[in-house]
Predict the structure.
Amino acid sequence: VQLQASGGGLMQAGGSLRLSCVASGNILSINAMNWYRQVPGKAREWVTVITSAGSTSYADSMKGRFTISRDKAKNTVYLQMNRLKPEDTAVYYCNARYGPLPLRDAWGQGTLVTVSS
């Protein structure tokens, strides 16, 4: 499984951005798709997940502002980020957990989101 993330950029606080992650390779083996983010010098932080069944979950600080969705026909997962805050500034990575068991991880290259105050 290979992942290609895009959509980052510079945005003012309160604005919106949509990130995309296109998956290729053995798509049918993907169990779940996640978004993570990382600020330089800090640990990578989990943001949200969408499972192969379509279930979603979010980190508490993103609930109500971020939405994960997918377009199966395009093999693409999206992260819609609304009401952005300066503390959302980070490199955002998409991740795929894929099988067979034990599940493995694939990572996209990261896309930088900068939110100015």
